[in-house]
Amino acid sequence: MQYDPIKRSLGEVFNKRPILRKLFYRMLDLLLLRTWHVKREIRKWIRENGKSGEVVDAGSGFGQYSYFLGKESKDWKITGLDVKEEQIEDCNQFFNKIGFDHVSFHYADLTQYNEQNRYDLALSVDVMEHILEDVKVFENICRALKPGGMLLISTPSDQGGSDVHDHDHESFIDEHVRDGYNIDEIREKLKKGGFSKSEARYSYGTPGKISWRISMKYPILMLNKSRLFFVILPFYYLLLFPFALILNYMDARQNHKTGTGLIVKAWK
Questions:
Q1: Is 235 left (phi over 0), alpha (psi -120 to 50) or beta?
Q2: CATH code for 4-267?
């Protein structure tokens, strides 16, 4: 399934005015379960490290995490990096319009990124499953972090991530170069990349898997069949949105023995 065309279509709708873009971010915050887990970890990091320093959003996409961080503190300098130049231009225009001069976006290939001892926190959300040379990216991010700096990753696991259930089953998302990480595998790769320690836990347990299907998978499948489903989508979410919220809340508050997602933290 092609996910990027759907994202581009949504972006065209919500990029027309800043208030629509903010509404779009709010919708993503509520619908995307990984956002619940990522924000939870960011808030933990804030409590321990304060609200100043430099942050890199490595694979910034629509810029929703940079926006969240930008709202948290004007004392952070936030840099978004992405390989899609149209996304970079779009994000810079939006953040300039809303007066977030402490947030900027730049083109960067993470496999070739070269920065040293600059950032206190790095984010990699829904990124590593798209990059084949993952150890090289870990090396580059580790180099870019200050000593003691932390990398926060959200990515599919090998327990059904990308909606893959057996060796012969293809990924639900065509753009993924891997179906998901084993916990030991990603921790070993982070070690090879230069990180001194790491932690990993599962996300998208039973509640999260149900929520993902009703809030993301089925709507995306419908939109891939026909853009006419954009008309039906508001009524679909009006009916199922409350159930998805409850399931997301449950998943974010539980410790899961297994799950289709991983939340990984690594320190330089």
A1: alpha
A2: 3.40.50.150
